[in-house]
């Protein structure tokens, strides 16, 4: 496990795909301990290679275990959370990030009020990737590396005359136009383990 304080996606011929936070459906965790809102997945529908989602941490809860997967979580709610990984507890504030294995025993407790985590889960055998923070100021090219999605965490982005606010996501394609705005975003980068 590491803590950081503070197969490739097939790009489509659709210029831009925006996923609004307000449109995300809440679904119960596999162990019934909480709810998550799935943003986007890659790979087979019945067993995705990777999944990006937002989890609500309303009270003390234990995470579902996902053997064979690697996970990264970033605090995106306003309030901190205590995250315990294999009996070691860490206090994480807004934008703090933690990585751990799907086999690990993990539980979370909000410290003051309910909060949220942005989660990236990846099948260890088929893909590898990162969930990192970036700051956008002005105009930038949308497709410059292996980045497949950007989640707005603060500020705003404008893409194809559409404005994205907090927790909105843009899924990038080869035809995505330039992005402009002033925002802190979480960037998802992925590549295949077979072709790193």
Automatic annotation (TrEMBL):
<dbReference type="InterPro" id="IPR011051">
    <property type="entry name" value="RmlC_Cupin_sf"/>
</dbReference>
<dbReference type="InterPro" id="IPR010282">
    <property type="entry name" value="Uncharacterised_HutD/Ves"/>
</dbReference>
<protein>
    <recommendedName>
        <fullName>HutD family protein</fullName>
    </recommendedName>
</protein>
<dbReference type="InterPro" id="IPR014710">
    <property type="entry name" value="RmlC-like_jellyroll"/>
</dbReference>
<dbReference type="Pfam" id="PF05962">
    <property type="entry name" value="HutD"/>
</dbReference>
């Amino acid at each position: 496990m590491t803590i950081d304080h503070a197969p490739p996606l097939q790009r489509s011929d659709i210029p831009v795909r925006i996923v609004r936070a307000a449109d995300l459906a809440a679904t119960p965790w596999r162990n019934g301990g909480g709810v998550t809102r799935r943003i986007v997945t890659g790979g087979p529908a019945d067993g995705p290679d990777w999944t990006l989602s937002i989890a609500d941490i309303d009270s003390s809860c234990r995470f579902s275990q996902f053997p064979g997967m690697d996970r990264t979580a970033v605090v995106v709610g306003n309030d901190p959370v205590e995250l315990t990984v294999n009996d070691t507890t860490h206090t994480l504030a807004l934008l703090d990030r933690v990585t751990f294995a799907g086999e690990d025993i993990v539980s979370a407790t909000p410290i003051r009020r309910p909060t949220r985590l942005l989660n990236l889960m990846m099948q260890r055998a088929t893909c590898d990737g990162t969930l990192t923070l970036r700051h956008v100021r002005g105009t930038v090219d949308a497709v410059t590396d292996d980045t497949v999605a950007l989640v707005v965490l603060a500020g705003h982005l404008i893409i194809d005359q559409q404005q994205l606010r907090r927790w909105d996501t843009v899924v990038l394609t080869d035809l995505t136009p330039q992005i402009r705005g002033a925002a802190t975003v979480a960037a998802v980068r992925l590549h295949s383990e077979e072709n790193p």
